[in-house]
Design brief:
Helix content: 10-25%
Strand order of the largest sheet: 7-8-3-2-1-10-9
Strand content: 35-45%
Radius of gyration: 18 Å
């Protein structure tokens, strides 16, 4: 039975209909394409002009559904799943993280200050910035 499931990828959240069985999440190929832009083609998993070969299609596609864990593995991206909360996060591939670190440029983000005014890191490019973070958990 399909249920609403939230997938977080590249700082955006998308809701899809998925079949959840234990810790496995399976999506219809159309849902994967609509939500994340990836399509299963003869040459592999493709998004736009980029295609990633899939060696074992029978593992990725079972009963006309794509397993989210096998999808993330095929792309070389980490996956964290919380089926109780109906959410999964697809992380950035290690090669992409390494390239970002090698560039020595911090990714841009925007956060509010205590008065609610928004501040973006890109507003301070070329200047030294001290970031202090706190989490209550």
């Amino acid at each position: 039975m399909a249920t609403a499931f939230t997938i977080l990828e590249e700082s955006r959240a998308v809701e899809v209909q998925a079949e959840v069985a234990g810790d496995r999440i399976r999506l219809a190929p159309e849902a994967l394409h609509e939500a994340l832009g990836w399509q299963l083609r003869p040459e592999g998993l493709c998004r736009g002009e980029i295609c990633v070969p899939v060696r074992d299609r029978s593992k990725l596609v079972v009963d006309d559904a794509i397993d989210l864990s096998d999808f993330a593995e095929a792309l070389g991206r980490p996956l964290a799943v919380d089926t109780a909360e109906g959410a999964a996060v697809i992380g950035t591939a290690a090669a992409d993280r390494a390239a970002q670190l090698a560039s020595l440029e911090a990714p841009d983000f925007t956060l509010p200050d205590l008065e609610g005014k928004l501040h973006s890191l890109s507003d301070h490019r070329g200047k030294k910035v001290l970031l202090i973070a706190y989490a209550s958990w």
